[in-house]
Design a protein that fits this description.
CATH topology of the largest domain: Quinone Oxidoreductase, Chain A, domain 1
Organism: Ktedonobacter robiniae
Radius of gyration: 20 Å
Helix content: 25-40%
Keywords: Metal-binding, Oxidoreductase, Zinc
CATH class of the largest domain: Alpha Beta
InterPro entries: ADH-like_C, ADH-like_N, ER, GroES-like_sf, NAD(P)-bd_dom_sf, Zn_alcohol_dh
CATH superfamily of the largest domain: Medium-chain alcohol dehydrogenases, catalytic domain
Largest sheet: 7 strands, mixed
Protein name: Galactitol-1-phosphate 5-dehydrogenase
Structural class: alpha/beta
Pfam family, one: ADH_zinc_N
Length: 350
């Protein structure tokens, strides 16, 4: 039986070793709130952490940075990210990227590149637990008619918004998205919301390509059976205006560079391979611009919350699965092995 100062949490102890344990309840520091978690998504970066392949995450650690919940404890003069007054009982999602606001990158508007940045679930205990403590200014209130699961999608959606924004595309432009995992699908959803209609999505799994079609992709390519570069160049007469690589493997990065139109822009958001050789002479001769996309700014996160509140991204059974927190270790193992049925797994409390 838990005491008032204890809670249940998934604790990562080392490569492929995650256990449900009883741990101490977090104590919010000044300016922080205590959130009773409701829904927590499993991120691809956490899978690499689970395997021991992510330098940001060191065991023992409570991961979890895509979450929603309800404020359980707050100070008397608490202010949320949108400027509203924080209150106990308010339903929220939170921006897990904590920045200093004072360094040169923050002052220049690149808060996602803050030199002192910390990530909830990596540098400090995360949300795969009954409760999590975060700064109040990181919290975004969500309406009662938005489900806990939908609210937990704000963080990965904000990542996708950043990538699409950096692609600098407009209605009438063509876009290739490599990878139909959660980030790739969210890039598709946001690009569609901007009025982009020519969107080609490639992946190796037919089930994911089917979802991309349902979400409005103008065409899909199975990378196992089709030459992606050749097909894209045929469909878009020399290449897509922009390409987003949401995989990050050496092969997909090479595809992205070859599939974009001369003078086009490639956005790398996937983090699969640490290093990849690139065709430098080709890049120079074709004037291809490569842009990295990391996390999101405060504005991007706010845009994600607004999009979710408007019902433009809905959690549906064909691509998302909910499981109890206690099944977290099995969920991580299945996602790593590629045997999970769903593209995205959300862990629920209770």
């Amino acid at each position: 039986m838990l005491t008032d100062s204890e809670m249940k949490a998934l604790v990562w102890l080392g490569p492929e070793d995650m256990q449900l344990r009883t741990v101490s309840l977090p104590e919010p520091a000044p300016g922080e709130v205590l959130i009773e978690t409701s829904a927590i998504g499993i991120c691809g970066s956490e899978l690499s952490g689970y395997l021991g392949q992510n330098s940001l995450r060191r065991p023992p650690l409570i991961m979890g940075h895509e979450a929603s919940g309800r404020i359980l404890q707050a100070g008397e003069q608490t202010t949320f990210a949108d400027g509203t007054t924080g209150q106990v009982g308010t339903r929220v999602t939170f921006n897990p990227l904590i920045v200093c606001g004072a360094c040169d990158r923050c002052r220049a508007g690149y808060t996602n590149l803050c030199r002192q940045r910390q990530l909830v679930g990596a540098h400090r205990p995360g949300a795969f637990a009954s409760y999590v403590a975060v700064p109040a200014t990181q919290c975004w209130p969500v309406p009662e008619n938005l489900s806990d699961t939908a609210a937990s999608l704000a963080e990965p959606l904000a990542c996708a918004i950043r990538a699409v924004t950096l692609a600098h595309i407009s209605p009438g432009d063509s876009l290739l998205i490599i990878g139909a995992g959660p980030i790739g699908l969210f890039c598709l959803a946001y690009a569609r919301s901007l009025g982009i209609t020519e969107i080609l999505v490639s992946d190796m799994l037919p089930a994911r390509l089917k979802i991309a079609q349902q979400w409005g992709a103008s065409a899909t390519l199975n990378a196992r059976t089709s030459d992606v570069v050749q097909s894209v160049q045929q469909i878009y007469r020399g290449g897509a205006m922009a390409v987003i690589d949401a995989v990050g493997a050496t092969a997909t990065r090479a595809q992205a560079i070859q599939a974009v139109v001369p003078g086009g822009r490639v956005v790398f958001i996937g983090l699969h391979d640490e290093e990849s050789p690139l065709a430098a002479n080709y890049l120079i001769r074709q004037e291809v611009t490569i842009t990295g996309s990391f996390a999101y700014t405060h504005h991007d996160f706010g845009s994600a919350v607004t999009m979710l509140k408007a019902g433009k991204l809905r959690p549906e059974a064909d691509w998302l699965e909910e499981r109890p927190l206690a099944e977290g270790p099995a969920a991580f193992a299945e996602l790593v092995k590629g045997t999970a049925r769903a593209t995205k797994i959300i862990l629920r409390m209770g």
